[in-house]
Amino acid sequence: MKDVIGGVCAPKGFKAWGLHCGIKADSEKKDLALIFSEKICNAAGMFTTNRMKGASVLVSQESLADGKLHAIIANSGNANACTGQAGLDAARGMAELAARETGVNPADVAVASTGPIGVPLPMEPIQNFVKPLAENLIAGKEGHDAALEAIMTSDGRAKEVSVEIEIDGKPVRIGGMVKGGKMLHPNMATLLCFLTTDAKISPQALERCLRPAVQNSFNRLTVDGDTSPNDTVIIMANGEAGNSAITAFSDEIEVFSKALEAVCILLAKAAARDGDGATKLISVTVAGAPNDDIAANFARTVAASNLVKSAFFSAGASWARALCAAGYAGDFEAEKTSLRFQSRAGSIEPFKNGSPAAFCEKEAKEIFLEEEVEIIIDLGGGFGKATAWGCNLTLDYISMNGAPPGYSGSR
Amino acid sequence: MKDVIGGVCAPKGFKAWGLHCGIKADSEKKDLALIFSEKICNAAGMFTTNRMKGASVLVSQESLADGKLHAIIANSGNANACTGQAGLDAARGMAELAARETGVNPADVAVASTGPIGVPLPMEPIQNFVKPLAENLIAGKEGHDAALEAIMTSDGRAKEVSVEIEIDGKPVRIGGMVKGGKMLHPNMATLLCFLTTDAKISPQALERCLRPAVQNSFNRLTVDGDTSPNDTVIIMANGEAGNSAITAFSDEIEVFSKALEAVCILLAKAAARDGDGATKLISVTVAGAPNDDIAANFARTVAASNLVKSAFFSAGASWARALCAAGYAGDFEAEKTSLRFQSRAGSIEPFKNGSPAAFCEKEAKEIFLEEEVEIIIDLGGGFGKATAWGCNLTLDYISMNGAPPGYSGSR
Q: DSSP for A352-403?
């Protein structure tokens, strides 16, 4: 597997574009994106488990029911969630506009929205700008950067990945972009993730690859414990790579599945590192659990602990807080448990087989100063192992998410 | 039920004292407390569900096994948690010292510790000061204030309650104190709560009253989603009120049970309001759920949402964030759901039967400016109802819990 450039436009036959239509007040900020394949794609999606589903989620679920997709239209600046029937009409309207301007069937267009929740989505800016959006895209500009910019909200960095693998002797590419920020918590911690591939792959095989990839990436990511109503992961496969079709039973599914999972993990880690106000990526690995699922639950709980996250606000950290968080995640024997901190600067083990162990304060400080710190907990009770990704909790999280004085509306 | 003064010393026959022994560096801050009844008490306790139990919890569970207690010795400044065998020896040592100086059996002494976790508990200050602590207490000083001060850590206010009820024509009193701050989350959100009563009541009846009281108070409280390893609620009943004994089957158990629950709810609300950095008490009531337990789970989830809590950082609030948090708490029909905000300043209903509804911004602002704000969600799906208590998330939570620069040890 090698890195390539181009994000969602790296695979053959995909185009993307993004522009400012006016949902966001700041005219410097793009807020409308389109991702498109001339050739109809096999497609699969996974969506939020939140019962207050955003209107875009409901429409995308309808579009994906037949496993086919031509395009995704997405906006930022408004999540179109908790908006009732008017919101649902607006989401359907977005799909219809995109379909009309690209000459495809509205039922083959997925919709995604992100931004403040509980605010009616203004349709006029979208009505005015879908046409130039589609025109720019069709004119052949590979606007993955522009599209990515247009799905960002409180994201600090653009998060995209593209890789190439070989299947059948043919180069096959997978590209992806993700929008993060806040409301990131299993299941499913992503807000928005769009994946493209030129692999030829059956809808069943695509579905079979997407589930574990999401399970081992976005479902292992936590920023703030809130599950968004708009979480959406969609993958589109247009078959332009010319490989012989990957089916659920072909050998090549393993190769594709592994690459897709790697792409999703890279995007999930990028989202964790870029959580609202975050300055550190915190990886939590739990080993010695009865099985991998139980290990994943432990890892997620530790990564989600406000006290663990607060401890990493500065260069400090607390091994005991991490152990306490494990303590309310499930059953284990404290006497068999050990904990290590690790980063590029080194490794210390302040807790070993149930008792505190001496460590060098200076070394600890150097470890915690790194931008990426690992917490490794061994429960000594089995072969289950899993990693979860989170970030530190800083003053900026609250500044970014506290309503400004006097503000009483929705966010 | 009427309010009386005296906290844990309000019921007949209870004495308390607190002093600075030197666990805390600041000599102005008390850190060692003793609560004592000359007459042996029937007693019951509930403890953390965290698997990394503090040493004091293990020792108190042993002491309470026979339902009898003379005293509780408690320290702040060190939680004696994650401290291995040495910690367990220290906790047993505390019970023995208290027993020796008060002339009772060590098996009738409970122990509680609160403060930073993962730090060895220094025994010397305790060895030096249990004697003067017991002497002051026995000298007859009703030191409930001093004892309360000595269990506080990051608490902003002293939290105690005492009430009087009538049973059998006899005045019966219940007193309680609580230590809050951080690591407050069901089950069991309290850190430390000591309750005293002069009621004559069997150990079985006491147990039967304590469980629902805790269930409907401390288990409905959330400050930061972290469950402490040291959570402890202990009630001691010395029978000095002279009522005829309350048993699990007597009519009077209802009267006592209701009063105990009221005391626990007052203490739980006081702890929520005084969460680390908090400036507002947020009550979340969920109605229209299939049953009370499900309603309680919804209410706790909304009260625990970092985004809901952040929204109340300033005078603002977001109805949609509260709905979203409900959305990941369980099953319900969005179309039947309504949401109201309420405080002493008034009431607005920004979401009604699945759709946003207009409300007056000015009125909303006035409602949110109050120190106590209620969120009321009606799921329209049954008769289950419950309230949970939380607080807003402010910059101070992180300042208080972020390790200082360069600090790499435990907290």
A: ETTEE----HHHHHHHHHSSEEEEEEE-SS-SEEEEEEEE---HHHHHHHSP
> B121 to chain A nearest CA, in Å?
12
Q: Residue A56's Cα: distance from chain center in Å?
A: 17
Say if the Cβ atoms of A403 and B354 lie within 8 Å.
no
Distance from CA of B395 to the nearest CA of A (A): 6
- Residue B17 in 3-state DSSP? strand
- E-strand ranges in B238-308 read 281-289
pTM: 0.83
Asked if B358 is an interface residue toward chain A (Cβ–Cβ < 8 A), one would say no
List, as ranges, residues 184-213 from A with C-beta within 8 Å of B.
185
ipTM at complex level: 0.76
DSSP A328: T
- Residue of chain B whose alpha carbon sits nearest to that of A364: B408
pLDDT < 50 positions in chain A: 186-189, 403-411
Nearest to A242 by CA among A276, A198, A283, A272: A198
Nearest CA in chain B to A82: B320
Partners of residue A384 on adjacent β-strands: A289
Q: B385 CB contacts (<8 Å, ≥6 apart)? A: B285, B286, B287, B288, B289, B292, B295
| pLDDT at position B307 over 70 | yes
- CA–CA separation, A237 vs A199, rounded Å? 6
Q: Which helix (H) or strand (E) holds A178?
A: strand A170-179
Q: Which amino acid is at A339?
A: L
What is the pLDDT, as a whole number, of residue B227?
73
pLDDT tens, position by position, B185-207: 544 445 799 999 999 999 999 99
Q: Both tokens of residue A257?
A: 């599945």
For residue B184, name the pLDDT band (cuts at 50, 70, 90).
low
Rounded distance between C-alpha atoms, residue A135 and residue A41, angstroms: 21
Do the beta carbons of residue A189 and residue A223 sit within 8 Å? yes
Reduced to 3 states (helix: H, G, I; strand: E, B; else coil), residue A322 is helix
Give the Cα separation of B306 and A361 in Å (integer): 32
> Would an 8 Å CB–CB cutoff place A21 in contact with chain B?
no
Contact B401 A227 (CB under 8 A): no
For residue B96, the surrounding DSSP H or E stretch is helix B84-102
- B-facing residues of A in 80-99 (CB < 8 A) are 81-86
Please name which of A180, A239, A88, A249 lies closest in space to residue A389, comparing C-alpha atoms. Answer: A180
The residue ranking higher by pLDDT, A310 or B1, is B1
Residue A302: its chain B contacts at CB < 8 A?
none
Predicted confidence (pLDDT) per residue in B104-150, tens digit: 999 999 999 998 888 899 999 999 999 999 999 999 877 999 999 99
Cis peptide before A128 (omega within 30 of 0): no
Catalytic residue among B48, B83, B102, B190: B190
CB-CB neighbours of B35 under 10 Å: 34
B400, B154 in Cβ contact below 8 A?
yes
- Interface touch B404/A229, C-beta < 8 Å: no
Is A406 within 8 Å of B365 when comparing Cβ atoms?
yes
What is the tens place of the pLDDT at every residue in A157-208?
A: 889 999 999 999 999 999 999 997 655 554 444 579 999 999 999 999 999 9
Strand partners, A14: A37
> CB of A394 within 8 A of CB of A156?
no
- Contacting residues for B345 by C-beta, under 8 A, at least 6 apart: B363, B366, B367, B369, B370
**What six digits make up the tokens of B240?**
């000095």
